[in-house]
Amino acid sequence: MSAKSYKSVKNCVARHLSEHGFVARDFDTLEMKVDGVSIILEFQKDKDCKGDVTRFTVSIAIFIGLLMSNHPPSEGLTLKKPSLSDSHWWDRLGKLLPVDADVWWCVSNEQSAQTSCAEIVEGVVNHALPKIKEIASVEALLGQWKSGVGHGLTEYQRHLYLGSSQKTENKAR
What we know:
Layout: H1 2-17, E1 23-26, E2 29-34, E3 37-45, E4 54-64, H2 65-68, E5 89-92, E6 105-107, H3 110-135, H4 138-146, H5 155-172
Antiparallel strand pairs: 1-2, 2-3, 3-4, 4-5, 4-6
């Protein structure tokens, strides 16, 4: 029942978030595109799960295609399907919720799937999206990178993207 419940929660979240512009891209990923910016929502299953319970978390990321035009994309990257590892900002959904924690959900039946779905949708719509939309632009991310913040990035990635965004700014002038 665990695998079926996990699939059920993902389908439920996809259905509810479609009202907010998200499209299911594959089994584990939803994406919303707005003005060249992709907001990626990715389910990540605990690989150590066994038995009747599936444990998973949800990550959310920002990817800006314009920033990729100034340096070679990572191996296997297509601008049509960026992943969390290709993103310019990412965090766990739970860190954007009032609890500010690395939240993991557990599902074992349809009831737990529906409860998890409701919590995830509420968290995305009422907490994550408002915060994400404030920083989902080249200018906002550039400000963070200049101040030394690279949420979800390595220091190398932050410097790489900072250089890339400055090249983009210079081209626009």
